[in-house]
Each structure stands twice: as C-alpha cells, then as structure tokens.
C-alpha cells in the first residue's frame, strides 16, 4: 500500500488488487488469507489483514484491523466522535471476502459509506449470505446513541477467483498447526 | 416468591430462563408444503419406493414418512408421496417426467396433500404433524447440564457469576454499562473480565469512544491476551487455532475433549499472575472453547457473532436489550442460532437469560 498512498486509484479492480496483496501477506503468515483496504477521496488510508492465529483472538479480522488503525490515528489527532463518523461516511472498504456478521455489524456501527467484496462468505456472511446487515437502518442501533447502525452500499463479486484461489492455496498448503481433518480446501469463510 | 435457586442474596429476583431459538409457533400453525401423493397397491410398495428413491429424493423432508397407512371403512389403504408439488393449482405440469411415467405405468391416481415443512421440535408439534401426514420425531438429544434445567449447584454458580458481572458494571460510576465475565465452567475459574471500554474512557474525560470496545469484545481480547501471556512461544498447537471458523470441520476434536485439556491450564494458578508451575506442559487452550460468558446486557449482533467466532459455549445475560440485542429478538436469534447450529456445526448456543423476576 505504501506506493499507493499518494496515488489516486480508480475502479474496483485496482483497489481489490491491493486488498488481495494484504490477503497474500496473511497467507505468508499462515493466516486465513483475507485482506482489505480502506479508501477515502480515492486514496488508500488504511489496510488490514486477518490476524486471528497470531493474536489468538478470532475477532481480529482484516476489516477490524484496518478500521482500528484509523480509529487509533484519528483519536490521537483529537478527532471527536462526530468528526470520526464524518470521516467514515466518506470511506469505502475493499475486502477480498464478504464481511462476516460481526464485521458487517461493525462497519454499520461506524457508518462506512460503501463496501466492495470478492467472494461470498457462505458460512458467516453479513452482507447478504446469512444476514443482510448492510441493508438495515436503525434496527442495529446500539445502546450508545453515537454509534447508530447505518446501512451501507455493498457490491460483491469483485475478482472472485483470485480471492478464492488464495483461500484454496491456504487450505491446500495446509496449516502446520492444523490437525489432519482440517487440511482441506474450503472456499467459504 | 418461592425460588429454587438457593440462597443467593437477591433470592427470588433471579430466575434462569432459556431463550428459545425458534419463534414459538402453535402446533396447529406449523408451516406445511404441498406434495403429490397417491394411493398405491401394497404389492407395489417396495418397487415404487426403490424407484422413487432414485428419481425423487425428498431432500428437505427427511422427517416426512414416504408411506402413510390409512384405515378407510375397515380397509387399510397405503398412500405414498411421489414428489414435491410446487403450486397449489393441482396442475400436473410441474411434475418431473420420470414421476409422470411412474404414474402412467402403475395407474396411480395422484392428489395434492400437505405435509409439515420442518421436523417437529416437540411432542405436541409431532402429534399435530401426524394429523396431516406421518413424520418421524427425534426428541432433542442435547442436554449439556440442562438447557431444560440446571442442577441446584450449577444454578448457584451461574447466579454468582452473573452477580459478579452486575457488580462489575455497577462499578463504573453512574453510567449504564455492560460488563462481561468469561468463565471456564469445568473449574469455575474466571478467565477474563471487562466493562464497556468506551465508558471507562469517557469517565477519563476523553471525548473518544471506541465504537467496538463493547464488554464482550474487550473480554475476548483479554482472554486472548491471557493466552498469549501463558503460552508465549509459538509452539505448535494441538488444534487448528483460530482457523476452525473458516473451515467446515465436522471431524475436529469435540469440545468436551478440549475442555479436559484446558482444565490443566485453568488449575495452574494463572489468576494470580503465575506462569504454569506444574511439571507437565499444559496444553494451550483453544480460544474460548467450552467457556461461558456472563453479560449484564444482552449482546449486540457484533458481539454475538464475535462470541461465536471465539467459541464461547454458552451466553448468559441479565437484561434483554430490545433495541440492539441479537439473541432475544426472535427474528435474529432464530437466524443466528440457526446459523450456529447448521453452518458452524458448533454445539448449540445456549442463549440463556437471567431475568429479574419480581
Ligand atoms: Zn469478519
Ligand atoms: Zn456489542
């Protein structure tokens, strides 16, 4: 992402390629290869990859990693919650796999503008596969009124085969930590 | 009011209530589907079944019996389901050609009838279903320390842990916050505690609230941090650590086996900040497999899914959250629990609610 920091990028495919790079990075670290980038004003402002094995925290999905980077930055800059919400409402996320229910809910809490994803998440997908949290409006509001859940625009199917083949190679190469029954290719997350 | 839940301070106020994972439907209003059936000659029954099994599997209707015996004016009549009927119209156009051939060659007179769409979940449902067309009924086999009732001892400790969560929530001054306590039920040891972190931050006069640091999310991170602290080396784990969510893994080690392994870890004095002192190397826990979480407020959808990812076994909460709660809202709990049961092949999530019972 370094090279692209200042470059303007347009179109879904170039952005998804950057997300796929993050996924490859995850793969090299023996993580399930899912990656994402966040774009504001046509510039990449954050990236994230799955880090569940390393952290032993199964919630450290690419999306939360990337959003946390921004939250941290913006908090340090002294942005208020209102400012932060304004920033996220201009942000687009590209992620190689459909956000799970947890991530979709999280993206709805921060009020992201738009999400593009690669392959569907048949098991836990929160943007249509299992639940459709991107379409909900106030229903997902949390108790704290600052972070009301909002719907967001969501488009899947961007560079699907690349996303899937990464996942496939993960399960084919086998996780050295995995017991034998788990060492097989599965396309869904 | 009499309570079976022992001598806890708030006796009489608390009662353990199971949150069902299905919208309660009166037995007579169970959904049905239409099928084509026919009266058959008993002599042909076996042949027909063999043929039908090849051409018309009733995939989603495994609970429905293929053949129904009926007594009409003293005569036994055999009725058989041929295939699903997609319309109410009674038109035979939608019938597969193989079935049509079968009807032709065996001179079957078909009719449309209703059968229950889903397997019965209770005896009452089942009895009602059989009035339409016989189905099979398998009473639920799960009973991990009583979804249907907790032992006196378990109720005690469940209420104690919930009380400690409520106390934790109260400790953040004046604010309504959520608190979480993760417990290993086999050793009754607390694995992690937390509060809504934004609330703590706010009480420190910061205007920033982390939007995801709900109590459950923080508790998950705390339990992960504990794991990293206790098992710092990246030694191979006996499990497919953290990856199991991503694979369809019916063959992975059962939670009960994992639980036994984990007991070693829990008993090794971690709570006091000691590292494991026992001679044998304790096995690394597998996320929060087998653990319970106590939440003051019902988890939101984000937290509920996070708890599933982290392999929490049971969720207990004190107060329903009608706005953002993910488990009590029937629509959602239905979908979420369905998801857990069918998609993850996890143990059934035992969403329990401890409600105040005045
Ligand atoms: Zn996710
Ligand atoms: Zn939450």
TrEMBL record, chain A:
Organism expressing this protein natively: Heracleum sosnowskyi
SUPFAM superfamilies assigned to the protein according to its UniProt record, in alphabetical order: Cytidine deaminase-like (SSF53927)
Source domain of life: Eukaryota
Matches recorded under CDD domains: nucleoside_deaminase
Family matches, as PROSITE patterns: CYT_DCMP_DEAMINASES_1 (PS00903), CYT_DCMP_DEAMINASES_2 (PS51747)
A GO BP annotation: tRNA wobble adenosine to inosine editing
Protein name: CMP/dCMP-type deaminase domain-containing protein
One Pfam family hit: dCMP_cyt_deam_1
Keyword Thylakoid included in the entry's annotation: no
Keywords, comma-separated and alphabetical: Hydrolase, Metal-binding, Zinc
InterPro entries: APOBEC/CMP_deaminase_Zn-bd (IPR016192), CMP_dCMP_dom (IPR002125), Cytidine_deaminase-like (IPR016193)
PANTHER family with a match to the protein in the record: CYTOSINE DEAMINASE FAMILY MEMBER (PTHR11079), TRNA-SPECIFIC ADENOSINE DEAMINASE 2 (PTHR11079:SF149)
Domain (CMP/dCMP-type deaminase) ranges: 10-138
Any GO molecular function: zinc ion binding
Keyword Metal-binding on entry: yes
From TrEMBL, chain B:
Gene3D superfamilies listed in its UniProt record: Cytidine Deaminase, domain 2
Gene Ontology BP terms: tRNA processing
Swiss-Prot/TrEMBL keywords: tRNA processing
Pfam families documented for this protein: dCMP_cyt_deam_1 (PF00383)
Keyword match tRNA processing: yes
Single GO cellular component term: nucleus
PROSITE patterns linked: CYT_DCMP_DEAMINASES_2 (PS51747)
Name under which the protein is recorded: tRNA-specific adenosine deaminase-like protein 3
């Amino acid at each position: 992402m370094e090279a692209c920091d200042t470059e303007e990028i347009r179109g879904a495919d170039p952005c998804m390629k950057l997300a796929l790079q993050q996924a490859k990075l995850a793969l090299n670290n023996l993580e399930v290869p899912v990656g994402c980038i966040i774009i504001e004003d046509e510039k990449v402002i954050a990236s994230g990859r799955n880090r569940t094995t390393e952290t032993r925290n199964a919630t450290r999905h690419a999306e939360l990693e990337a959003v946390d980077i921004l939250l941290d930055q913006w908090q340090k800059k002294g942005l208020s919650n209102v400012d932060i919400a304004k920033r996220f409402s201009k942000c687009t996320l590209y992620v190689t796999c459909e956000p799970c229910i947890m991530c979709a809910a999280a993206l709805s809490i921060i009020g992201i503008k738009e999400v593009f994803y690669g392959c569907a998440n048949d098991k836990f997908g929160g943007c249509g596969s299992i639940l459709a949290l991107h379409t909900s409006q106030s229903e997902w509001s949390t108790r704290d009124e600052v972070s009301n859940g909002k719907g967001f625009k969501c488009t899947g199917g961007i560079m699907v085969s690349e996303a899937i083949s990464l996942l496939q190679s993960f399960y084919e190469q086998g996780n050295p930590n995995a017991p034998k029954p788990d060492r097989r290719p599965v396309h869904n997350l | 009011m009499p309570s079976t839940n022992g001598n806890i301070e708030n006796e009489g106020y608390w009662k353990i209530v199971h949150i069902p994972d299905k919208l309660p439907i009166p037995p007579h209003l169970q959904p049905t589907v239409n099928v084509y059936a026919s009266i058959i000659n008993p002599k042909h029954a076996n042949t027909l079944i063999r043929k039908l099994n090849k051409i018309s599997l009733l995939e989603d209707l495994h609970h429905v019996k293929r053949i129904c015996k009926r007594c009409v004016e003293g005569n036994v009549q055999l009725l058989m389901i041929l295939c699903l009927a997609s319309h109410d119209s009674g038109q035979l156009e939608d019938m597969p050609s193989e079935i049509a051939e079968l009807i032709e060659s065996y001179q079957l007179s078909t009719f449309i009838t209703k059968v229950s769409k889903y397997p019965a979940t209770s005896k009452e449902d089942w009895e009602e279903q059989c009035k339409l067309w016989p189905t099979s009924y398998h009473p639920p086999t799960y009973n991990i320390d009583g979804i249907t009732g907790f032992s006196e001892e378990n109720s005690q400790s469940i209420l104690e842990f919930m009380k400690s969560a409520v106390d934790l929530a109260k400790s953040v001054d004046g604010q309504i916050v959520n608190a979480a306590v993760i417990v290993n039920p086999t050793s009754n040891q607390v694995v992690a505690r937390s509060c809504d972190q934004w609330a703590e931050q706010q009480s420190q006069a910061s205007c920033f609230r982390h939007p995801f640091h709900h109590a459950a999310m923080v508790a998950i991170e705390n339990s992960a941090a504990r794991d990293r602290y206790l098992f710092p080396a990246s030694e191979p784990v006996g499990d497919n650590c953290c990856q199991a969510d991503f694979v369809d893994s019916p063959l992975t080690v059962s939670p009960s086996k994992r639980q036994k392994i984990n007991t070693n870890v829990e008993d090794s004095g971690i709570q006091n900040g000691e590292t494991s002192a026992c001679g044998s190397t304790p096995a690394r826990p597998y996320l929060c497999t087998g653990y319970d979480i106590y939440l003051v407020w019902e988890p939101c959808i984000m937290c509920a899914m996070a708890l599933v990812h982290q392999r929490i076994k049971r969720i207990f909460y004190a107060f329903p959250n009608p706005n953002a709660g993910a488990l009590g809202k029937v629509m959602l709990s239905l979908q979420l629990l369905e998801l857990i049961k069918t998609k993850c092949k996890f143990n059934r999530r035992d969403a329990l609610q401890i409600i105040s019972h005045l």
